[in-house]
Amino acid sequence: MTSAIINVSAIALGLGSVPEAFAQSRNVYKPTAISSGSEINDLLTDKDIPTGQKGFARDYILEAQKDERLEITVNSGSFDTVLSLLDTKGEVIAENDDAASDTTNSLIFFKVRQSGTYTIRVSSFGGSSGGKFTLKVTKLRVVN
Fold first, then answer.
1. pTM value?
2. Comparing C-alpha atoms, which of 140, 139, 135 is closest to residue 59?
3. Which of 28, 92, 100, 110 has its Cβ near the most Cβ atoms within 10 Å?
4. In Å, what is the CA distance from 95 to each residue of 27, 30, 51, 69?
C-alpha cells in the first residue's frame, strides 16, 4: 500500500518512477525550526549541506522580532564549530568561529534590526567531518 501511495504521489508530482521519487524526497532541503529559549542536540555529518570548503553545514530557522537581543551558541567536543546567521535574503550578517582563544565553540550576540525569518547555520571549520553538537538560542533582556 505504501508503494502505491508513493507511486501516485510520484506521478502526480511528475517525478517519474517510485525509486526516483523516493530518492528525491530524501534530499529535500527543510531546516529545523528553533525558537528563543530552545536547545537542540544534533549531529553534523557528511550527509548535510556541502559548504564547498570541504566541510558540511546544518541549518535552522528562527523567527525573530525587531529589537530582540539574541545570544546564539554552538558547542561541540567533536569538531571545531563555525556559527553563521543569515538574513531573510540568505546573506551572512553575523559569523563566529571561536568564541574565545581557548575554545573551538562559537558564539554570536545579535540585535534584530528587522522582524523576520533568519537562518542559523552550524558548520565545521577546515573541512572536519563533524559530530555531535548543541545549539542554543537565548533571548537576552535589557537591563536598565
1. 0.77
2. 135
3. 110
4. 26, 22, 15, 16
Per-residue pLDDT at 27: 60
Q: What SS3 state is found at 72?
A: strand
CA distance 6 to 24: 12
Centre a 10 Å sphere on the Cβ of residue 86 and count the other Cβ atoms it contains: 17
57: left (phi over 0), alpha (psi -120 to 50) or beta: beta
- For cell 574565545, the residue is 100
Examine the domain organization and report whether 59 and 76 are in the same domain. yes
* Residue 95 identity (one-letter amino acid): E
* Residue whose C-alpha cell reads 549531529 in the numeric block: 43
What residues make up the domain containing 10?
1-29
Same domain, 21 and 41: no
